[in-house]
Design a protein that fits this description.
mainly alpha; globular; about 260 residues; single chain
Protein backbone atom coordinates (compact mmCIF):
# COMPACT_ATOMS: atom_id res chain seq x y z
CA UNK A 1 0.00 0.00 0.00
CA UNK A 2 2.82 2.37 0.89
CA UNK A 3 4.62 1.66 -2.39
CA UNK A 4 1.43 2.07 -4.42
CA UNK A 5 0.74 5.49 -2.93
CA UNK A 6 4.35 6.59 -3.42
CA UNK A 7 3.90 6.05 -7.16
CA UNK A 8 0.33 7.37 -7.17
CA UNK A 9 1.42 10.73 -5.77
CA UNK A 10 4.64 10.82 -7.76
CA UNK A 11 2.59 10.59 -10.97
CA UNK A 12 0.10 13.16 -9.70
CA UNK A 13 2.94 15.70 -9.73
CA UNK A 14 4.53 14.41 -12.94
CA UNK A 15 5.52 16.98 -15.56
CA UNK A 16 5.92 19.85 -13.11
CA UNK A 17 9.72 19.55 -13.15
CA UNK A 18 12.29 18.85 -15.81
CA UNK A 19 14.12 15.53 -15.63
CA UNK A 20 17.22 17.15 -14.11
CA UNK A 21 15.15 19.05 -11.54
CA UNK A 22 13.28 15.86 -10.70
CA UNK A 23 16.53 13.95 -10.19
CA UNK A 24 17.79 16.65 -7.80
CA UNK A 25 14.51 16.76 -5.88
CA UNK A 26 14.32 12.97 -5.49
CA UNK A 27 17.99 12.73 -4.56
CA UNK A 28 17.51 15.22 -1.72
CA UNK A 29 14.39 13.47 -0.46
CA UNK A 30 15.54 9.86 -0.90
CA UNK A 31 19.27 9.44 -1.51
CA UNK A 32 20.56 11.84 1.15
CA UNK A 33 18.58 10.08 3.93
CA UNK A 34 19.67 6.74 2.42
CA UNK A 35 23.35 7.69 2.60
CA UNK A 36 22.94 8.98 6.16
CA UNK A 37 21.25 5.77 7.35
CA UNK A 38 23.82 3.67 5.47
CA UNK A 39 26.46 5.37 7.62
CA UNK A 40 24.43 4.75 10.80
CA UNK A 41 23.91 1.06 10.09
CA UNK A 42 27.49 0.60 8.93
CA UNK A 43 28.69 1.98 12.27
CA UNK A 44 26.18 -0.19 14.14
CA UNK A 45 27.40 -3.33 12.35
CA UNK A 46 31.03 -2.52 13.07
CA UNK A 47 30.21 -1.92 16.75
CA UNK A 48 28.19 -5.14 16.94
CA UNK A 49 31.02 -7.17 15.41
CA UNK A 50 33.51 -5.67 17.89
CA UNK A 51 31.26 -6.40 20.87
CA UNK A 52 30.79 -10.00 19.79
CA UNK A 53 34.39 -10.43 18.79
CA UNK A 54 33.27 -11.52 15.34
CA UNK A 55 35.24 -10.91 12.11
CA UNK A 56 34.19 -7.65 10.48
CA UNK A 57 33.70 -9.44 7.16
CA UNK A 58 30.94 -11.57 8.71
CA UNK A 59 28.73 -8.50 9.00
CA UNK A 60 28.73 -7.63 5.30
CA UNK A 61 27.42 -9.28 2.13
CA UNK A 62 27.62 -8.45 -1.59
CA UNK A 63 24.06 -7.11 -1.87
CA UNK A 64 24.92 -4.33 0.56
CA UNK A 65 26.87 -2.60 -2.21
CA UNK A 66 23.51 -1.86 -3.88
CA UNK A 67 21.10 -1.26 -1.00
CA UNK A 68 23.24 -0.46 2.02
CA UNK A 69 24.32 -2.36 5.16
CA UNK A 70 20.74 -3.19 6.24
CA UNK A 71 18.30 -4.89 3.89
CA UNK A 72 15.32 -2.60 4.63
CA UNK A 73 17.27 0.32 3.14
CA UNK A 74 16.61 -1.15 -0.33
CA UNK A 75 13.38 0.85 -0.46
CA UNK A 76 14.96 4.30 -0.88
CA UNK A 77 17.25 3.67 -3.89
CA UNK A 78 14.52 1.52 -5.48
CA UNK A 79 11.93 4.29 -5.22
CA UNK A 80 14.47 6.79 -6.53
CA UNK A 81 15.22 4.79 -9.70
CA UNK A 82 11.79 3.26 -10.30
CA UNK A 83 10.04 6.55 -9.52
CA UNK A 84 12.08 8.38 -12.14
CA UNK A 85 11.50 5.61 -14.68
CA UNK A 86 7.73 5.30 -14.18
CA UNK A 87 7.12 9.03 -13.91
CA UNK A 88 8.99 10.10 -17.01
CA UNK A 89 7.79 7.18 -19.14
CA UNK A 90 4.18 8.05 -18.30
CA UNK A 91 4.85 11.72 -19.06
CA UNK A 92 6.23 10.77 -22.48
CA UNK A 93 3.56 8.24 -23.51
CA UNK A 94 0.68 10.28 -22.12
CA UNK A 95 -2.44 9.27 -20.25
CA UNK A 96 -4.96 8.24 -22.87
CA UNK A 97 -7.37 5.31 -23.08
CA UNK A 98 -4.89 3.11 -24.97
CA UNK A 99 -2.17 3.57 -22.34
CA UNK A 100 -4.67 2.93 -19.54
CA UNK A 101 -5.88 -0.27 -21.18
CA UNK A 102 -2.35 -1.48 -21.90
CA UNK A 103 -1.33 -0.97 -18.26
CA UNK A 104 -4.46 -2.75 -17.02
CA UNK A 105 -3.78 -5.73 -19.29
CA UNK A 106 -0.14 -5.79 -18.27
CA UNK A 107 -1.02 -5.61 -14.56
CA UNK A 108 -2.04 -9.28 -14.04
CA UNK A 109 0.86 -10.45 -16.23
CA UNK A 110 3.33 -8.55 -14.04
CA UNK A 111 1.65 -9.88 -10.91
CA UNK A 112 1.82 -13.53 -11.97
CA UNK A 113 5.41 -13.21 -13.19
CA UNK A 114 6.46 -11.71 -9.85
CA UNK A 115 4.47 -14.23 -7.80
CA UNK A 116 6.09 -17.08 -9.74
CA UNK A 117 9.63 -15.77 -9.24
CA UNK A 118 9.04 -15.21 -5.54
CA UNK A 119 7.22 -18.49 -4.87
CA UNK A 120 9.86 -20.56 -6.64
CA UNK A 121 12.61 -18.74 -4.75
CA UNK A 122 14.49 -17.85 -7.92
CA UNK A 123 15.70 -14.48 -6.65
CA UNK A 124 18.13 -13.45 -3.95
CA UNK A 125 18.44 -10.17 -2.08
CA UNK A 126 17.83 -7.42 -3.10
CA UNK A 127 16.08 -8.63 -6.29
CA UNK A 128 13.40 -10.43 -4.29
CA UNK A 129 12.55 -7.16 -2.49
CA UNK A 130 12.33 -5.25 -5.77
CA UNK A 131 10.17 -7.87 -7.47
CA UNK A 132 7.91 -8.11 -4.42
CA UNK A 133 6.81 -4.46 -4.77
CA UNK A 134 6.85 -4.22 -8.58
CA UNK A 135 3.11 -5.10 -8.83
CA UNK A 136 2.43 -2.36 -6.26
CA UNK A 137 4.22 0.12 -8.53
CA UNK A 138 1.80 -0.80 -11.33
CA UNK A 139 -1.09 -0.54 -8.86
CA UNK A 140 -0.07 3.03 -8.08
CA UNK A 141 0.09 3.87 -11.80
CA UNK A 142 -3.36 2.39 -12.44
CA UNK A 143 -4.88 4.21 -9.47
CA UNK A 144 -3.41 7.43 -10.84
CA UNK A 145 -5.10 6.78 -14.20
CA UNK A 146 -8.39 5.96 -12.46
CA UNK A 147 -8.33 8.89 -10.05
CA UNK A 148 -11.87 10.00 -9.22
CA UNK A 149 -13.49 7.23 -11.30
CA UNK A 150 -15.32 4.67 -9.18
CA UNK A 151 -15.81 2.20 -11.99
CA UNK A 152 -12.15 2.14 -12.98
CA UNK A 153 -11.03 1.79 -9.37
CA UNK A 154 -13.39 -1.14 -8.83
CA UNK A 155 -12.17 -2.68 -12.10
CA UNK A 156 -8.60 -2.53 -10.79
CA UNK A 157 -9.71 -4.32 -7.63
CA UNK A 158 -11.54 -6.87 -9.77
CA UNK A 159 -8.41 -7.57 -11.79
CA UNK A 160 -6.42 -7.98 -8.56
CA UNK A 161 -9.02 -10.38 -7.16
CA UNK A 162 -8.99 -12.42 -10.36
CA UNK A 163 -5.21 -12.60 -10.40
CA UNK A 164 -5.21 -13.57 -6.72
CA UNK A 165 -7.56 -16.49 -7.44
CA UNK A 166 -5.36 -17.65 -10.31
CA UNK A 167 -2.28 -17.36 -8.10
CA UNK A 168 -3.91 -19.44 -5.39
CA UNK A 169 -4.98 -22.06 -7.93
CA UNK A 170 -1.50 -22.37 -9.42
CA UNK A 171 0.32 -22.18 -6.11
CA UNK A 172 2.38 -19.21 -7.29
CA UNK A 173 0.98 -16.98 -4.59
CA UNK A 174 3.91 -15.42 -2.72
CA UNK A 175 2.86 -11.77 -2.28
CA UNK A 176 -0.59 -12.25 -3.80
CA UNK A 177 -2.47 -11.84 -0.53
CA UNK A 178 -0.59 -8.67 0.38
CA UNK A 179 -1.33 -7.08 -2.99
CA UNK A 180 -5.01 -8.05 -2.74
CA UNK A 181 -5.31 -6.33 0.65
CA UNK A 182 -3.31 -3.32 -0.55
CA UNK A 183 -5.50 -2.75 -3.63
CA UNK A 184 -8.68 -2.73 -1.54
CA UNK A 185 -7.12 -0.52 1.12
CA UNK A 186 -5.84 1.97 -1.48
CA UNK A 187 -9.23 2.26 -3.16
CA UNK A 188 -10.96 2.76 0.19
CA UNK A 189 -8.45 5.44 1.12
CA UNK A 190 -9.11 7.26 -2.18
CA UNK A 191 -12.89 6.99 -1.83
CA UNK A 192 -13.25 7.87 1.85
CA UNK A 193 -11.96 11.43 2.25
CA UNK A 194 -11.29 12.45 5.84
CA UNK A 195 -10.13 15.95 6.78
CA UNK A 196 -6.49 16.24 7.79
CA UNK A 197 -5.76 17.03 11.42
CA UNK A 198 -2.74 17.43 13.65
CA UNK A 199 -2.53 13.71 14.41
CA UNK A 200 -2.73 12.61 10.76
CA UNK A 201 -0.09 15.15 9.72
CA UNK A 202 2.23 14.04 12.51
CA UNK A 203 1.83 10.35 11.65
CA UNK A 204 2.39 11.04 7.95
CA UNK A 205 5.50 13.03 8.74
CA UNK A 206 7.11 10.31 10.86
CA UNK A 207 6.14 7.21 8.84
CA UNK A 208 9.31 7.03 6.73
CA UNK A 209 11.53 7.77 9.72
CA UNK A 210 9.96 4.94 11.72
CA UNK A 211 10.58 2.58 8.82
CA UNK A 212 14.23 3.59 8.67
CA UNK A 213 15.05 3.52 12.38
CA UNK A 214 13.05 0.58 13.74
CA UNK A 215 15.62 -2.17 12.90
CA UNK A 216 18.29 -0.25 14.82
CA UNK A 217 16.09 0.08 17.90
CA UNK A 218 14.99 -3.55 17.52
CA UNK A 219 18.62 -4.65 17.70
CA UNK A 220 19.33 -2.41 20.70
CA UNK A 221 16.23 -3.45 22.68
CA UNK A 222 16.99 -7.14 22.17
CA UNK A 223 20.04 -6.61 24.37
CA UNK A 224 18.35 -4.78 27.25
CA UNK A 225 14.76 -6.00 27.57
CA UNK A 226 13.67 -9.17 29.38
CA UNK A 227 11.22 -9.91 26.55
CA UNK A 228 12.35 -10.80 23.05
CA UNK A 229 11.22 -10.76 19.40
CA UNK A 230 7.95 -12.54 18.77
CA UNK A 231 6.35 -11.21 21.94
CA UNK A 232 3.72 -8.46 21.89
CA UNK A 233 5.46 -6.46 24.63
CA UNK A 234 8.67 -6.37 22.60
CA UNK A 235 6.83 -5.19 19.48
CA UNK A 236 5.14 -2.41 21.46
CA UNK A 237 8.48 -1.36 22.92
CA UNK A 238 10.07 -1.09 19.45
CA UNK A 239 7.10 0.91 18.11
CA UNK A 240 7.08 3.33 21.05
CA UNK A 241 10.87 3.76 20.95
CA UNK A 242 10.75 4.41 17.19
CA UNK A 243 7.98 7.00 17.58
CA UNK A 244 9.82 8.86 20.30
CA UNK A 245 13.16 8.73 18.50
CA UNK A 246 11.77 10.14 15.24
CA UNK A 247 9.75 12.85 16.99
CA UNK A 248 12.95 13.90 18.75
CA UNK A 249 15.04 13.80 15.56
CA UNK A 250 12.53 15.99 13.74
CA UNK A 251 13.17 18.72 16.28
CA UNK A 252 16.93 18.67 15.80
CA UNK A 253 18.18 20.47 12.66
CA UNK A 254 21.14 18.11 12.29
CA UNK A 255 18.91 15.02 12.04
CA UNK A 256 15.76 16.47 10.48
CA UNK A 257 16.88 15.77 6.89
CA UNK A 258 17.40 12.08 7.75
CA UNK A 259 13.72 11.45 8.47
Amino acid sequence: MFTAFVFFYALSGAGKRSFVEDVKHRAQRLLLPWLAWCAVYFAAKVADAMLRGAPLASEFEYWMLVVGPKIHLWFLPFVFVAGLAFTHVIVRVGNDALVNTACLVLFPVVQMACFYLLTEGLLERPFSQWVFVLPACFLGVLLHFARGDWDKQLLICGVTVGTYLVAEATGWNHGAEQLLIASGACVLALIIHLPANGLSKTLAGISLGIYLIHPLLDAMLRRVLPVGPGEVAFAIAVIVASLLAILMMQRLPLFRRMV
